[in-house]
Design a protein that fits this description.
210 residues, alpha+beta, Arc Repressor Mutant, subunit A, 2 domains, 3-stranded antiparallel sheet, two-stranded antiparallel ribbon, 12% strand, disordered C terminus
Length: 210
């Protein structure tokens, strides 16, 4: 008779939950299903682990959120306004950059000329550079038209910044210009505002680890 297939050793479900918790907490970006699969026992049900973590953090100061096709700990939305009284947040992008980002988010992939047509104004290179530097937009190939202009779209960081799981969750365009509520990690120290920067809108804050 052929040898019987080896019976997999049972795993400690609570240990798997703790491993997932540690990975998500330590990650600087949303943790993907692939990352959890690589870490947890092969026989472990990832959805069950995530459900256990959600239940564990429900109603607490931080919650497990589905962000950018992964998972990330975020400050409970109802607490974020109170935290802003004591947590310093980075400066927002200028209004023109936020408006450009909204156009890209809702019309991507889109060329620079098309952005300018929708805005009714020229798009300065500094505005595009600021979005690139913040890792909110990225080239998405080239359009098959004369000159083959670059197509622009949003990044996974954009989803994480605005607390979205995917682009289907985009809010009304006006809401995209409002500062997101979630906070997950402390911002870097900021210089005191100058006369040039005082009139500039604040950039949506990164979440704070609690």
């Amino acid at each position: 008779m052929p040898d019987a297939a080896p019976v997999p050793e049972p795993f400690d479900f609570e240990e798997q939950v703790r491993l997932a918790e540690a990975l998500i907490f330590a990650a600087t970006a949303p943790t993907s299903p692939r990352q959890l699969t690589a870490l947890l026992d092969k026989a472990c049900d990832i959805e069950a682990v995530i459900a256990a973590l959600r239940a564990r953090y429900a109603g607490r100061g931080v919650e497990l959120a589905s962000i950018a096709a992964g998972w990330q700990f975020r400050t409970a939305p109802d607490l974020a306004p109170k935290l802003r009284r004591v947590v310093q947040v980075p400066r927002r992008l200028p209004r023109v950059a936020m408006e450009t980002l909204a156009i890209i988010a809702y019309h991507q992939p889109i060329t620079r000329t098309e952005i300018e047509e929708i805005r009714g104004a020229a798009l300065g290179q500094t505005t595009l550079d600021s979005l690139l530097e913040a890792d909110l937009v990225t080239p998405k190939g080239r359009k098959e038209s004369p000159g083959r202009p670059t197509l622009w779209g949003t990044t996974p960081q954009f989803l994480a910044q605005f607390g979205l799981n995917d682009l289907r969750e985009l809010p009304p365009r006006g809401d995209l210009l409002v500062e997101p509520m979630a906070i997950h990690r402390p911002p870097e120290p900021q210089a005191e505002p100058t006369a040039d920067t005082a009139a500039t809108d604040e950039f949506p804050p990164d979440p704070v680890s609690c």
